[in-house]
Amino acid sequence: MSTPLNLKYTKDHEWVLIENDIATVGITNFAQGELGDIVYVEVDTVGEKFDAEEVFGSVEAVKTVSDLFLPLSGEIIEFNELLESEPEKVNDDPYGEGWMIKVQISDSSEIENLMSAEDYKTMVGE
Questions:
Q1: Which residue, 56, 17, 39, 21, is CA-closest to 91?
Q2: Which positions of the chain have pLDDT values less than 50?
Q3: Secondary-structure class of domain 8-107 per CATH
Q4: Of 41, 43, 48, 111, whose CA is between 20 and 30 Å from 81?
Q5: Angstrom distances, CA of residue 92 to CA of 34, 37, 47, 88
Q6: What pLDDT, on the 0 to 100 scale, is given for residue 63?
């Protein structure tokens, strides 16, 4: 479960599932492990457009608050509302029920800038 091969990854420890021109985004198992118990996920940017690497929200854990960076330029079209009542899903199932947002991709050429699972595993020392 630690690094699914079918996903793309960012240096900011986010994963990206690309389906046509929609990207589903969450944080990696490594990231949730580093953050500790997640108590709140704040994303109030649905309907807004961002460039890649802009901050679109934050994750609050018992120890710290961490910004979330958009991996691809586009419009945030959906927030995982389950996280409002159950933010711990990010810890329990980061690649499943713990997903955070869906993005309508505006520049598909940016997908090439994302890391493969192998590259991400090398970066985090898996």
A1: 39
A2: none
A3: mainly beta
A4: 111
A5: 14, 10, 28, 6
A6: 84
Every domain of the chain and the residues it spans: 8-107
Which tokens go with 78?
A: 């959906």
pLDDT above 70: percentage of residues in the chain: 99
46 within 8 A of 76, measured Cβ to Cβ: yes
Nearest partner of 99 among 22, 20, 19, 15, judged by Cα: 15
CB proximity list for 121: less than 8 A, separation 6 or greater: 3
Which tens digit of pLDDT belongs to each residue from 24-51? Answer: 999 999 999 999 999 999 999 999 999 9
pLDDT of residue 105: 98
What's the one-letter identity of residue 74?
Answer: G
Structure tokens belonging to residue 105: 């991709």
- Is residue 71 exposed (0-12), middle (13-18) or buried (19+ Cβ within 10 Å)? buried
Do 91 and 56 touch, CB atoms closer than 8 A? no
* Three-state DSSP string of 44-88: CCCCCEECCCCEEEEEEECCCEEEEECCCCEEEEEECCHHHHCCC
